Amino acid sequence: MKINLKVWRQKNGNAAGKLVDYKLDNISPDMSFLEMFDVLNDELMHKGEEPVAFDHDCREGICGMCSMYINGRAHGPQTGATTCQLHMRSFADGDTIIVEPWRARAFPVIKDLMVDRSAFDRVVQSGGYVSVNTGSARDANETLIPRTIADEAMDAAQCIGCGACVAACKNASAMLFVAAKVSHLAVLPQGQAEASIRAERMVAQMDAEGFGACSFTGACSVECPKSISLDHIARLNREYLGAKITSEAV
Amino acid sequence: MNLESKIPEGPLAEKWARHKFGLKLVNPANKRKYEVIVVGTGLAGASAAASLAELGYTVKAFCFQDSPRRAHSIAAQGGINAAKNYQNDGDSVFRLFYDTIKGGDYRAREGNVYRLAEVSVNIIDQCVAQGVPFAREYGGLLANRSFGGAQVSRTFYARGQTGQQLLLGAYSALSRQIANGKVKMFPRTEMLDLVVEGGKARGIITRNLVTGKIESHSAHAVLLCTGGYGNVFYLSTNAMGSNVTAAWRAHKKGALMANPCFTQIHPTCIPVKGKYQSKLTLMSESLRNDGRVWAPKTKEDAEKIRKGELKPTDLKEEDRDYFLERRYPAFGNLVPRDVASRNAKYVCDEGRGVAATGLAVYLDFADAIKRDGRTTIEAKYGNLFEMYEKIVDDNPYETPMMIYPAVHYTMGGLWVDYNLMTTIPGLYALGEANFSDHGANRLGASALMQGLADGYFVVPYTLGDYLATIGHADKLPVEAPAFKAAEAEVKHMVDRLLSAKGERTPEEIHRELGHIMWDYCGMSRSAEGLKKAKGMIQDLKKEFWTNMRVVGDAEEMNQALEQAGRVADFIELGELMVDDALAREESCGGHFREEYQTEDGEALRDDANFAYVAAWEYKGDNQPEVLHKEELVFENVKLTQRSYK
């Protein structure tokens, strides 16, 4: 396959960036999208040019590190998949592909296609946990958690924290990410004690990080590689409103 | 050098309890005065950092990824073992201990393995309390499954994403401590050297991967939780960034490296497709619970399949060879990983492999679907099937999956005593980075167990003993000459990597190293091949330092520079692995020497001469390393030939 690439190049967070054209021949349809980038970088390095910086690690769709905005879609044209799970067979010979970093105020560009997503970590630090010290747990089977509840928690908990929801949102809102964490812990008995304060704090931190508001268009859920449902946003809203009414904290 | 394992006296079941009581404690008011560095934030690192901070220690944690949540533990699929015996099927701490030590082909310490089995039950409790959504039965009790080589159902799981959920649990505990100000987190930061002074570990030198800044960090103790070195093979199931650098640089500063040749080749991975391939994807071992492994009976049929003239579903039952079921009627498709991998290799060596490369066998779910229905199979393995389809573009509900072994885990690692301390006082190694619990082969669902055991339940006790002994005044400031010298050394290495103006990229050299390791130090090894490989690796090292080229600068994000440093260390490690494999003149677990096998091709151990841990001491650049032996003592199990027939 022949592929024409337009790739966002930006030296660092302070520099201006621009789209740069590259042409690649001999791309196999069996290559993953990132392997296609490996080929590009290999060519660039042989020419003595700087390779394109991009985040990637597990290359099997679970670490959440890869983050490319491909032809106007977070993680590209496939649904329910990360960039690393996208294969060149999803494109046609001679296609032009535009590759940009996640665009959001809360995710500043570090270099080329690489962005800083530490805002997500700070949101989790604000309350995305159950306060239980090591060693103080009781027997795991003492709390009965029906399968349906465990499944519901797991549906939310499988968020990989990649930030595609933010990148896909016209407001760069992080509601789906926050909702997934709040929801995961809110449906489980272990998370009950801190449910209100968790929702309040995580939402407050999300706002402080500069993420936009949610206008419930659903783009996040469509682009989410784990297809996390909008239902969780509904639950977050309920948790948050309930917390606001009953709690004096924050 | 005297390798003292510090295994406590007394009956096996009482060792850990007695030992814990004998350990010195740090006064609660003094704990904050002690600083601890944790490198790596996977299961071992995140759990250790969180637990130590909860106790009151001042912790600094480092990871090269952009967030601690991304460590490669996240990719573990199948599950985590624990001797809960919730299923009433005869499990016990002793049975988990026994299975693990036998599964490791009797090359691990009894004391360590027993402790691992003992604390396994606490891990499940802890994770559930954190909100880890393990699979449940309708009544609300935890679900279990049997897993690779075990005859009891003791594996806990969260769909095919158990590692992810356990890591997110540990990450949430870590996040809570970061918010509390007890842990200072340094993401996108790579450890490039260990600082040793006065015979003790004093801190580390790091490079900020965004700015390129080289920095010193001082502490009373350093914990390396940096995972395994499977990427020495270039292609493996490890993440692209997984590397040996932290452990290797500690090794060069005096920490002994134990059993480096013990690597695990996982039987069920998606086969290699082309030269550009950057990594291999594991298909969880749990698939072998329902999938049947087979290859065509004849070379002729295999060839037709390779050419696309025949489909696997065209082959009649009598033309298929379910080779694991045939050779191992008792365990069938559930034999341990090393056995399953080797047999797949034999079949392909005979010319009966499938896929265009001839390097694949089938994992077939047709019978399971017929028996249990597609819905049941989908519920169990849906996400794995989907993952397979995305990569291979083939529907495994209709066509059997193709699998082939791939490098997955490294049992070898830094030598540690019972306290998880390396041969450098104050330097600890946890999780896959140490060598301690899996012997020559790790059983499925045991890596997650070990990482969390070390981090949650072992090091929080044993570290206190060391800290109480040295006292909080015994810390070196970062202005000390030892730090300055180590910083200068690191800067020199960075400059050296950037100054080479050759032709080849670090990636190309890495790929070449991988081929050497896979061909000669992979699933099957021989003295002749290993000797040849040693020469090839030495040549490659020369090539690396004379004909390599890294574009870009030191003071910026430079991924090629990061990779070059890691490849330099992999090359040196590769040579040591070859030495270790050559010195171990027996076959055991994942280490299979062609010269040492039974008549029917099984691994032939030599307990009289090789029941020891091989711990290697670094002696300087291009100098042969020195072998030290820690004899393994078995008082509670009888060493038998592993039989899964």
Characterize the structure shown.
- The complex is a heterodimer of chains A (250) and B (645).
- Chain A has two domains: 3-110, Roll (Ubiquitin-like (UB roll)); 117-246, Fumarate Reductase Iron-sulfur Protein, Chain B, domain 2, CATH 1.10.1060.10.
- Helix content of chain A is 34%, strand content 12%.
- By secondary structure, chain A is an alpha+beta fold.
- In chain A, helix 2 packs antiparallel against helix 6 and helix 5 packs antiparallel against helix 6.
- Chain A has helices spanning 33-46, 118-125, 147-157, 164-168, 175-187, 195-208, 219-223, 231-246; strands spanning 3-10, 17-24, 69-70, 73-74, 96-100, 109-111, 114-115.
- Chain B has 645 residues and is an alpha+beta fold.
- Among the domains of chain B are: 268-407, Succinate dehydrogenase/fumarate reductase flavoprotein, catalytic domain (Flavocytochrome C3, Chain A, domain 1), CATH 3.90.700; 481-618, Methane Monooxygenase Hydroxylase, Chain G, domain 1, CATH 1.20.58.100.
- Helices cover 38% and strands 14% of the residues of chain B.
- In chain B, helix 3 packs parallel to helix 6 (162-179), helix 5 packs across helix 13 and helix 11 runs antiparallel to helix 12.
- Chain B is globular.
- Classes of the chains: A alpha+beta (250), B alpha+beta (645).
